[in-house]
Write a structure and sequence with these properties.
By secondary structure, the protein is α/β, with parallel strands linked by helices. The chain has one domain: P-loop containing nucleotide triphosphate hydrolases (Rossmann fold), CATH 3.40.50.300. Helices cover 45% and strands 14% of the residues. It has 14 helices and ten strands. The strands form two sheets. The protein has an eight-stranded mixed sheet with strand order 3-4-2-5-1-6-7-10, with helices on both faces. Strands 8-9 form a two-stranded antiparallel sheet. Helix 2 packs across helix 3. The termini are close together. The relative contact order is 0.16.
Amino acid sequence: MTKIISIFNNKGGVGKTTILWNLADAIARKEKRVLMIDFDPQCNLSLAVLGTDIFTKTLPTQNVPYGTTIRAYLQRFLQNTGGFEFFSHKGLHTHSKAEIVAGDFWLNVYSESLSVGSDLLTGTGVAKYVVLRDLIDFANKRNDVEPYDYALIDLPPSFGALVRAALYSSDYFIVPCTSDTFSAYCVGLIGEMLPGFFQDWHSGFQRFKSSNPYLTQYDELGSPKFAGWIFNGFDTRNNQLVKADQIHHDKISDSIKTDLIQRLNGNLCLGLPNNYQIGQIEDMNVLVQNSIWQNVPVSQLKNFRPIKTLQGSGNWAWNQLEQISLLKDSFRELADNIIKYCI
């Protein structure tokens, strides 16, 4: 069965999209089938993986009115017109075992259609909040296609309806955090909000089950397990965190334990490290711009020449090649931990 994982933080700029893309590529290189789902109306993941030209071709046209994005499934679902369609795309330079369901600005419309009061708490619109689970199940049932091993969901930085829908559909969630003053505070906000999210699902689902006692497809949903956090965007000196980053790291680690874990009532993966950290990604600096502009995962940049307007020359410096190698190892280790803990 596909393991569905949301990469979530209500704070913007923590590297959710970049981490998800490079993590998907790293997992795929371990011979696992991975589906990336761009559930953010900004569509940054789609642009990074596919490039502007290919992504533009996925959008609706007169001949393809729903496009070949996530909208092709969701709009038919929302309007109850039937004839569901699933489209996935392969990135220009991402491993072939990793595919993406492209995003669409139309996701704002889907978000506005979701009402906690009239859909969720009444139990009458539960299916709208777990539509991503249905989409993945639909994709896995296609003829002559192996099921996906993992689905990774990219989300907007908010506590809005799309985030709820992704979390309710997920088996696990991961929290990326950056080395800055606000990250520990935002972890606390996550700890405050998620128990309420899960209680809302429980209340609505009980009403749903009272009317549908023999329908079991959603019984295990609505309360994803915490699968750890990722420390992102730090600097090192002599293979050690610089002092400021170490201070931020320790504050985030403390907040994870006191403000998040204690409020999850044990709803987390077994065997996680004592500090619940499953990965760390050093600041990518100019590499991340090269990666996005060329639609190349960071781990594969050594096979491509740097963009002169970013680099100032046509070749990577030795220290940049070393950084690419270190980042490749970091994402490989993160992929190993996902496979280890999300079982």
